[in-house]
Amino acid sequence: xxxxxxxxxxxxxxxxxxxxxxxxxxxxxxxxxxxxxxxxxxxxxxxxxxxxxxxxxxxxxxxxxxxxxxxxxxxxxxxxxxxxxxxxxxxxxxxxxxxxxxxxxxxxxxxxxxxxxxxxxxxxxxxxxxxxxxxxxxxxxxxxxxxxxxxxxxxxxxxxxxxxxxxxxxxxxxxxxxxxxxxxxxxxxxxxxxxxxxxxxxxxxxxxxxxxxxxxxxxxxxxxxxxxxxxxxxxxxxxxxxxx
Length: 244
Description:
6 helices
C-alpha cells in the first residue's frame, strides 16, 4: 500500500497550485493527510497486476539491467482513467542494441478481443516512454469497462516460447460525474492533484509526466514528478530521462 505522507509535500503542492489562477488555501487540509486516509474512489477497483516482471524465462537472453522494465501506474486496485484514449507510461531499461522489440497489447476484460496492439521502437538509451491509444473509434475505451494490457520484451528472434519479459495490468474507464467535473473545473487546484485524490492514477501520471517532459528544466515540475513516483513506489525511476 502507498504509505508516503502527503504533508511532507505541502510546499510542492502550494507551488504547483500557484501556477493556476488561484491559491492553494482550499487544498492544504487535503494534502496534510496520508494518501491511505484519503476517501476511497467511488467506483470499483481493478485487479492487481505486475508492474515489474514477475518472472523471466530461465533461458532468457535479455541482458542484465540496473532497473527493471516498469509500468508507472498504481497497480494495486486503483488503475482508473477518465480518458476515452488513455496514455500509459513505462520505463524501458533496454535499447535497440539489446532487445529485439517491445510490444504492447490491450484486450477486453476477458481477453477475448484485441483492442489494440503495437510494436514500440527503442532508442539508444534507456528511459521513460509513453504509449497513447490512437484516437480512432475502434480503439476507444467504453465507460464502466475494465481492460487488460500487456507489455512484452523479446530479447531474441525466437518467439516460439513466448516473451522473455512481461508486464501486465488493468485499466478501468470511470464515468465523469457532476461532482468530479466541478472539482476539475476548480482553477485553484491543478487537475492532476484531483486525479490523485480520486484515485484516477493513469490521468495523474499523464498530466504531470507530460508537463515535466515538456519542461525538464522546471524545478517545480521536476519536484511534482519525483513526488508522484515516490507515492507510486517508483523512486528508482526519478533520474530516468523521458524518451522522445
